[in-house]
Amino acid sequence: MQGLIQRVKHAKVEINNHVVGEIGNGILLLLGVEKHDDEQTADKLLHKVSNYRIFTDENDKMNLSLKDIKGELLVVSQFTLAADTKKGMRPSFSSAATPSQANELYEYFVAQAKELELTIATGEFGADMQVSLCNDGPVTFNLSV
Predict the structure, then answer these.
(1) Please, are residues 89 and 104 in contact by the beta-carbon 8 Å criterion?
(2) What pTM was estimated for this model as a whole?
(3) Could you say which of 80, 85, 98, 140 is catalytic?
(4) 141 vs 6: CA distance, rounded Å
(5) d(Cα 142, Cα 136) in Å, to the nearest integer?
(6) Which residue, 50, 71, 87, 145, has fewest beta-carbon neighbours within 10 Å?
């Protein structure tokens, strides 16, 4: 499971010019699911996303997590994160989960995230989405478990 996180001042996802998910200060998570992933993998990634210390403290050091600042989380499914780009000039998606497996784990991840008592917003699995954000820093990390 791949999670590309970006520390944002605000972010939103639109489908057909209609906002379906929007957050203020927090993390935009682009979530990619691979064949070998399961609920345990999703739990590990969620723990990492919610506790990863990428927000600054009073000394301007990255010592605070999303949970610490009571930030918001926007989860957007991102099929292309599962791509193998090592060979050639075209990505291979052979390691990506099937759409049904990926959707099931995406929905599981979102349900578990909602239990963290944070503000959670989402995109729509499999939709053609437009994502807008104000990356704070910029701060971006690729998390895997």
Answers:
(1) no
(2) 0.95
(3) 80
(4) 7
(5) 16
(6) 87
Tokens of 136: 């704070």
And the tokens for 44? 């590990």
Known catalytic membership, residue 80? yes
Q: Which helix H or strand E contains 68, and what residues bound it?
A: helix 66-69
DSSP string, 82-109: G-B-SSSSS-B-TTBPPHHHHHHHHHHH
Alpha carbon distance 69, 90 (integer Å): 40
Kind plus residue range of the DSSP H or E element containing 31: strand 26-32
CA 128, CA 4: separation in Å to the nearest integer?
A: 18
| Residue 126 predicted with pLDDT over 90 | yes
β-bridge partners, 64: 55
Q: What is the pLDDT of residues 86-116, one digit of tens each?
A: 999 999 999 999 999 999 999 999 999 999 9
Q: Please check whether residue 69 is in contact with residue 119, taking contact to mean a CB–CB distance below 8 angstroms.
A: no
Backbone angles phi, psi at 35, to 5 degrees: -55, -40
The three-class DSSP label of residue 52 is coil
Count of beta carbons in the 10 Å neighbourhood of residue 81 = 18
